[in-house]
Design brief:
The protein is α/β, with parallel strands linked by helices. The protein has a single domain, classed as Rossmann fold, CATH 3.40.50.720. About 40% of the residues lie in helices and about 15% in strands. It has a seven-stranded parallel sheet with strand order 3-2-1-4-5-6-10, with helices on both faces. The chain has a two-stranded parallel ribbon with strand order 7-9. Helix 4 links the parallel strand 4 and strand 5. Helix 3 packs across helix 4. It is globular, with a radius of gyration of 18 Å. The model has no long low-confidence stretch (mean pLDDT about 95).
Amino acid sequence: MKIFVAGSTGVIGQRLLPRLVQAGHKVIGMTHDPQRKGLIESWGAKGIIADAFDREGIIASIGEVRPDVIIHQLTSLSQWNLEDNARMRMEGTRHLVEAAQIHGVKRMIAQSIAWAYEPGDHPATEDVPLDVQAPAPRKSTIDGIISLEQAVAQLPNHVILRYGMFYGPGTWYDASGIMAEKVRTRTLPATDGVMSFLHVEDAANAALQALDWPTGPVNIVDDEPAAGTLWLPLYAEALHAPAPAYQAGSKRGERGASNAKARKEYGWQPLHPTWRTGFAQSLR
């Protein structure tokens, strides 16, 4: 199968491309940075230079490649700029979908998030509505996700991977990441808000397996949604950082998500089923 990966050198893409190549696929990795083309090719894929915000450039790139599948792993999160990331989800996704429609690509696998659901008391399943009434500043993130998912759903065959919060090498929760620094300086309190985590290796494996999954959204999260009062002290301990302070309450939509559909219907099995062991393993 010929597969075009947008976002091919991000924390997921750099794990996904070698897996796709090893599985026998012909892989084309897109990057906007010419200096990263060699990195893509070192994984056995073909590198192509294109900017997600350049509509005509994306259309031309997809036309040159004529892939069977587009895997959309585009984000703009390295500098914690949520506005830029929302724009990427809106404009970048729209350009990929338009290019797919113009050139007859019928299948797309796209990265979404598992904390965009409306508020509730239990981990969300895929039939729970997204949080369309979210106030600012959450509204920016939700608007980006809604735009992304609606655009991708225009293609006849699509899988929307609603990923949990990434941890592992290269993420915000890496030992040198933004969240680790907040924990070391005790500026991140432990709250009652519930989060679902996902190791980046499991995210990449899910994207590979999704080539054979049916159309629709699916939560890709670990087995144990957890309140900050549970996971944050263990994360701090794994970092050898001070114990966090407690702050009562939670933010809108902090309910976690269920992976029952991915596990029971699709047979997905995370290598890191819980953050309890995953944090310690990833921070060694």
